C-alpha cells in the first residue's frame, strides 16, 4: 500500500523507489565536465509540472543495478552529452550531496556523487542518447563559466557549483566535499 505522498506508480521511472521516508529515492552519478577555458558543460531543464521553473545542472543521472558510480558517470556522459571517456578520465569523487527536490509532482531524494572530467579542447554536446522523458524536460546544453553561473537568473544545482568551479579549474585538491542534504526547493522559495 502506498502513502498519499508516494503513489504506487510514478512518472519518474522504475529506478526511483520509495525510501524509508516515503519519498521516491535513487542514487546518482554526476560529472562536472570542464573545458580548457574553465567552463563547465551544463544542462538546462524544467519540471514537466511547472514549465516556468528552469534550472542548470551537471550531466548525470541514476546508477543502474550492477553499475559502479564510475560506470554510471561514464554512461551518463555518453547518453546525455555524446561524450566518450574512460575511467582514467574521471577525477574523484570530488563531492557528494543528497538533493531533495520536487519533480513530476513528487518530492524526491537523490543521493549524488560528483566526478570531474576534463576535455581541454571542449566538446560539441549532442542529445542523441536522450530518452523520451529527457527530450520532454531538458532544454539545452551549454558551456558556462563560474561567472556566467553567478550572473544566471535561473537556479543552479548544486548551489555551490560556481564556487566549486573556481577551485576545480586549477586542479582538484583531492578533498571530497560532503554537502550533506540540500533542499533544492528552498531555492524556489527564495526566488518567490
From TrEMBL:
Coiled coil: none annotated. Pfam families: NUDIX (PF00293). Keywords: Hydrolase, Magnesium. GO terms for molecular function: hydrolase activity. Residues 1-12 have a biased composition (Polar residues). Residues 24-166 form the Nudix hydrolase domain. Residues 1-23 are annotated as: Disordered. It comes from the Bacteria. Its cofactor is Mg(2+). InterPro entries: Nudix_hydrolase, NUDIX_hydrolase-like_dom_sf, NUDIX_hydrolase_CS, NUDIX_hydrolase_dom. Belongs to the Nudix hydrolase family. This is NUDIX domain-containing protein. The lineage of its organism: Bacteria, Bacillati, Actinomycetota, Actinomycetes, Micrococcales.
Amino acid at each position: 500500500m502506498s502513502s498519499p505522498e508516494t503513489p504506487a506508480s510514478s512518472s519518474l521511472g522504475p529506478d526511483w523507489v520509495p525510501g524509508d521516508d516515503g519519498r521516491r529515492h535513487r542514487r546518482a552519478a554526476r560529472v562536472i565536465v570542464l573545458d580548457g577555458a574553465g567552463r563547465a558543460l551544463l544542462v538546462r531543464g524544467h519540471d514537466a509540472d511547472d514549465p516556468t521553473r528552469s534550472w542548470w545542472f551537471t550531466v548525470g543521472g541514476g546508477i543502474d543495478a550492477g553499475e559502479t558510480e564510475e560506470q554510471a558517470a561514464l554512461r551518463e556522459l555518453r547518453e546525455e552529452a555524446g561524450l566518450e571517456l574512460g575511467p582514467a578520465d574521471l577525477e574523484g569523487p570530488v563531492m557528494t550531496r543528497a538533493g531533495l527536490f520536487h519533480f513530476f509532482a513528487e518530492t524526491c531524494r537523490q543521493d549524488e556523487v560528483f566526478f570531474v572530467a576534463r576535455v581541454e579542447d571542449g566538446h560539441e554536446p549532442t542529445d542523441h542518447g536522450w530518452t523520451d522523458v529527457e527530450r520532454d524536460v531538458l532544454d539545452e546544453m551549454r558551456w558556462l563559466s563560474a561567472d556566467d553561473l553567478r550572473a544566471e537568473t535561473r537556479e543552479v544545482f548544486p548551489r555551490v557549483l560556481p564556487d566549486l568551479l573556481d577551485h576545480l579549474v586549477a586542479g582538484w585538491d583531492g578533498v571530497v566535499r560532503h554537502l550533506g542534504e540540500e533542499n533544492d526547493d528552498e531555492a524556489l522559495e527564495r526566488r518567490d
